[in-house]
Write a structure and sequence with these properties.
Length: 1067
């Protein structure tokens, strides 16, 4: 072996190990960007350099300040107790007032749909308490105030203390102010705690002599360079209650400018409100107010009539906090009200704005949130089972984000501060509610609140929390009792609540059976369907409750849907939510803590050898929601009926939560508990078997039984979901990736064997080596290079994240999956290296041919024309694909889609990029095209490719299409690229592509086989159309020399070994 061959072999091996190092080293990299480093906290020194000014401006506070006791524990909790978040602030601007800051409302003005109102929020942090300068009646403190006007978001994050700033962008303005001043405790107002502070900030500048002082806000680019002026002439006074009680919960504040009105920095006085944080202990001292609302206990309201079983366990407060934390309650319409319009459309004790009044008493999308829920168990024997409860009720308008509202702490006429008692004897929580700010005498505490946690459910009772707000004064009540609820969700049925055994009472089974009889006529099609197709059913009768729970999971739907049949125009987005509430005797899901004996008693299949089809019907109840602009009247639909596992259909009666005017509801005499129960619903599920024969989508039909002239009538609704996947099919996804990984290993191993066979074939047929197309080999190398690079990148990202996540047995952290991935990447690397070796041998054989005939370079095969011809064909094909794709998707709006891959990264998808990626796969499928073109151009009389090579590689390229054609058509929602082996969402893996591409590839194989079996002369004589030959006569451009002289010259010219009579590959 000569020196050049040794260097080439060494470089190949070295390149192999270097690429192995790149791929596998990235797999074990640790993201140590934060290693050895900790977040450095900015240290801020607090200066009290305005003591003289503070004493002067805060003299009115110091005059009524009481002496501070050094041993008072409250002095050591100032930072925690006196800070507050997301309170309210407002300015009373009379006429041409002086507002504090501008707000860019162009988002609201430019949209007629957006009904949101900006929120004025304020947060305050006590940043320092300087006890070194403590006097008899005051302590110096520093604070940071942040104020904002915003359409979205909160002020929960503490800004940087170093320097105040003002920020503004469309829909949001915020200002931070640094303060220093004094903390005192007053002799007045029951010893309230007072802070008087002087502030320093940068204010947005006003334009003088202008009707619009914030004209610069309308200029382009203002967000980068707002006009600011320094101001330190402002005073803030915050007043806190000494004790946190029902009557003294509020934090009150005011801030005013010390500048004269003629100064452009002057602003009108503004006011603030909030309440003490959870670090302050609540004192239950309002027994008189509670007894005024609740005596005699329990209060006899409309809900306490014995029709609903109520929770009476000892974990009431735990359940109440869990069901109300960051959750919103639904306010029900006044469907029983028969008073004046003003009386019936009023939102209980709350002040209704224009947006709420526009609902006309239906209160559509008006919510109620419970905040700061606190409980105290009474320990005395006579009060056993008695819990005292306090909370704040906040009404939320339709346009306000309910999660933002749950974080607000401002008190206003949209809030009720409440306190009351709960007793296990009745299960009723009775409270007194005080609107807005409350004085010491309890004025404004004229609302009674009754709240329950039901245990029994039905089609008309789906509330896991249920309550009313009513006026204590019956003679002078100004509003109709306001009812509210929180609908039950299956996911919440666990923990202490389920140990009390909630249950469901079926009441519409007979009406649903009538729907079943009408929808199931006896015919041959139904018999065939029942005998051939299988649908979700109970799997194990011995484990009856567990089987019910699994079936409930399969019947639950959370999936997009579209009108059925699919419209010609692109439909608006609709999300279908069908949450199974009960199935047979099972309510919710089966947990091991349930009493299994209960299910044994109610198991209809226990000790039954044979049963009829009707006995196999299963009672079912569910909650159906259609989320979409065109289904606003279906905010909630309670359904109940039967499920037939033979045909996979639910026959249901629905009760609709109608959000119409209170007048329409009152005049509709056939409502049941305010619900329209004249609704029929049929849900059809796809089969679990023969998924390749049946479209795996669910269909829903919703029909009103009312006459068309009835105001509660609606047109029939028919929907079809996107393909759904049952539980076992989802489990198949996890195992299928492993199976497909093994398939990739087998196919890559076969490809490596084919490439090795071609290397041996060239060694034994040296005269054929120059006629192997380098363009064909380049296409093959490109096919191995792209997944190799992207695979290395994926490994790098996973290595950076896997050490930050908790270890769990999932798809990403499965050791078996990793072994398969690493094996695949190793085999890809080997196949790529062997393909490069094949290119090297072909290239060197052409160099030897050129050195043998230096005066006739045209005799050496050249891939230049082959490359141009191949590029032309593929570019034309790609343009044709884009045109076809555009015609097929022209009805869809132009958009850039996004997907989340299996590692959680979000990526944008552009259609032309997707089509290009797909077409690159098509180029690899047609890898023989350059060889066919080259054989025609070079007019070969040899056999460049071994049969095993081009037959084997083609078979491997066609295997994904065959696999895709015979497998289930259900898409996989869990991975960005569907399965590793094949992606059926791509156009080239559609059913047409799965047939057309293999046919073309097989034709290319046959073309190569015929070209190599017959020489060019025989082929040109055979392909005759009439009197014309389809191929031109052969030429001597690529005429090869006799085989013996060619091999002898190679042996003498390269090996330089005259004693060796054996022919061999010098490489």
């Amino acid at each position: 072996m000569n020196m050049m061959s040794s260097i080439a072999a060494s470089s190949t091996v070295l390149g192999l190990f270097m690429m192995l190092g790149i791929v596998f080293a990235n797999s074990y990299m640790v993201n140590n960007g934060n290693f050895g480093s900790r977040e450095r906290k900015h240290s801020v020194s607090y200066k009290y350099d305005r003591i003289g000014e503070i004493n002067k401006e805060c003299a009115f506070v110091l005059q009524s300040a009481a002496e501070l006791k050094p041993d008072d524990s409250r002095l050591y909790t100032i930072k925690e107790e006196l800070s507050f978040l997301n309170g309210d602030w407002w300015q009373e601007l009379n006429g041409a007032g002086a507002p504090l800051m501008p707000f860019d409302d162009r988002e609201l003005l430019g949209s007629s749909i957006d009904k949101r109102s900006p929120l004025n929020l304020v947060s305050f942090w006590v940043t320092d308490v300087d006890r070194r300068h403590q006097s008899k009646n005051s302590i110096f403190v520093s604070g940071l105030l942040q104020m904002g006007i915003t359409l979205e978001g909160l002020l929960s994050e503490k800004p940087f203390e170093g320097s105040p700033r003002f920020d503004i962008w469309p829909g949001h303005s915020q200002l931070s102010i640094n303060f220093q001043g004094i903390y005192t405790e007053s002799k007045k107002n029951h010893g309230e705690r007072v802070m008087c502070l002087l502030g320093s900030t940068v204010l947005p500048s006003r334009q003088p002599d202008s009707g619009d002082p914030w004209g610069w806000v309308k200029e382009f680019g203002y967000t980068n360079q707002p006009l600011l002026t320094q101001d330190d002439q402002m005073i803030l006074v915050l007043r806190y209650p000494r004790m946190l009680t029902l009557a003294s919960r509020a934090i009150r504040g005011s801030m005013r400018s010390l500048n004269p009105k003629s100064n452009l920095k002057y602003f009108d006085e503004l006011h603030m409100s909030s309440w003490l944080t959870t670090s302050a202990n609540y004192q239950f001292t309002s027994e008189n107010l509670v007894s005024r609302a609740c005596d005699p206990y329990p209060y006899k309201d409309s809900l306490l009539n014995g029709e609903i079983d109520i929770y009476k366990g000892l974990d009431f407060c735990v359940i109440l906090e869990r069901f109300t934390h960051q959750e919103a309650l639904t306010i029900l319409p006044n469907w029983k009200c028969n008073g004046t319009d003003e009386f019936c459309r009023k939102l209980g004790p709350f002040v209704s704005d224009k947006e709420i009044n526009a609902t006309d008493g239906s209160f559509r999308n008006v919510k109620l949130v419970l905040q700061d829920v606190r409980c105290e168990n009474m320990t005395s024997k006579e009060n056993a089972g008695v819990v005292r409860v306090s909370s704040v009720f906040r009404a939320v308008p339709p346009s306000e984000n309910q999660f933002t509202a749950a974080q607000r702490t401002g008190l206003s006429n949209m809030t009720l501060s409440a306190e009351g008692i709960w007793k296990s004897s009745s299960g009723q929580l009775c409270m007194v509610g005080c609107s807005g700010f409350v004085d010491g005498d309890g004025n404004g505490c004229d609302t009674r609140i009754c709240l329950y946690v039901p245990l029994s459910f039905s089609i008309k009772q789906r509330s896991i929390l249920l309550g009313t707000l009513s006026s204590i004064e019956r003679t002078t009540r100004s509003y109709f009792p306001l009812a509210f609820e929180k609908l039950v969700r299956t996911a919440e049925l666990w923990d202490q609540y389920t140990t009390s055994h909630p249950y469901y009472k079926y009441s519409k089974i007979e009406a649903a059976s009538a729907v079943f009889e009408r929808d199931e006529p006896f015919n041959i099609g139904t018999v065939i369907k029942k005998s051939l197709l299988k649908f979700p059913k109970l799997e194990d009768m011995e484990k009856f409750p567990y089987s019910l729970s699994l079936l409930s999971e399969d019947l639950t739907l959370h999936i997009p849907a579209a009108p059925d049949p699919f419209p010609s125009s692109f439909p608006t987005k609709t999300d279908l939510e069908l949450e199974i509430l009960s199935l047979g005797p099972l309510f919710g899901h089966y947990w091991l803590t349930h009493n299994v004996s209960t299910f044994k008693k109610e198991n209809p299949y226990q000790d039954v050898g044979e049963y009829t089809e009707k006995q196999l019907l299963i009672n079912v109840s569910a909650q159906l929601n259609l989320v979409g602009n065109q289904y606003t009247n279906f905010s909630s639909l309670s359904v109940e009926g039967i499920y037939d596992p033979h045909v996979g259909k639910m026959y249901l009666i629905g009760c609709r939560d109608v959000r119409a005017s209170w007048k329409i509801l009152y005049e509709s005499m056939d409502l049941e508990a305010g619900l329209d129960c004249l609704v029929e619903v049929v849900v059809s599920y796809p089969p679990t078997t023969a998924r390749w024969l049946v479209n795996p989508t669910a269909r829903i039909s919703i029909v009103s039984q009312r006459n068309e002239d009835d105001p509660l009538y609606f047109v029939p609704i028919k929907l079809q979901t996107v393909p759904i996947m049952y539980r076992k099919q989802r489990e198949d996804i996890l195992s299928r990736r492993g199976v497909e990984g093994i398939l990739r290993i087998l196919t890559l191993s076969t490809a490596i064997a084919c490439i090795l066979n071609q290397l041996f074939y060239i060694r034994d047929n040296m005269e054929s080596a120059p006629y192997v197309s380098l363009v064909m080999l380049g296409v093959q190398a490109l096919g191995y290079t792209l997944p190799l690079i992207t695979g290395a990148e994926a490994l790098f990202r996973k290595a950076a994240t896997e050490f930050n996540d908790n270890e769990s047995y999932d798809l990403q952290n499965s050791q078996w999956t990793r072994v398969i991935d690493y094996t695949v990447k190793f085999l890809v690397l080997v196949a790529f290296s062997l393909t490069l070796r094949l290119c090297q041998k072909v290239w060197k054989s052409r160099i030897r041919m050129l050195t043998r005939t230096p005066l006739e370079p045209h005799r050496v095969p050249s891939d230049k024309k082959v490359l141009f011809s191949t590029l032309f064909i593929h570019i034309a094909g790609y343009i044709l694909v884009l045109i076809v794709h555009y015609v097929n998707t022209s009805y869809k709006p132009l958009q850039t889609a996004h997907f989340i891959d299996s590692t959680g990264y979000t990526h944008a998808i552009r259609e032309w990029e997707t089509e290009l990626e797909e077409y690159l796969g098509l180029v690899q499928d047609f890898f023989l095209l350059p060889q066919v073109i080259a054989n025609l151009m070079w007019r070969i009389h040899v056999k460049p490719l071994g049969k095993l090579y081009y037959f084997g590689i083609t078979s491997i390229r066609l295997l994904p299409h065959i696999y895709d054609y015979v497998r289930s058509p259900i898409p996989n929602p869990y991975f960005s690229e569907e399965y590793e082996f094949v992606n059926p969402r791509m156009d080239f893996y559609s059913k047409f592509g799965d047939i057309a591409i293999p046919i073309v590839a097989i034709l290319l194989v046959l073309a190569v086989y015929i070209q190599q079996r017959w020489n060019y002369k025989k082929l040109s004589q055979t392909l005759i159309l009439g009197q014309r030959k389809l191929l031109p006569l052969g030429s001597k451009v690529y005429e090869r020399l006799p085989s013996v002289s060619f091999e002898a010259e190679l042996a003498s010219g390269v090996n330089r070994n005259p004693t060796s009579g054996k022919e061999h590959d010098p490489e």
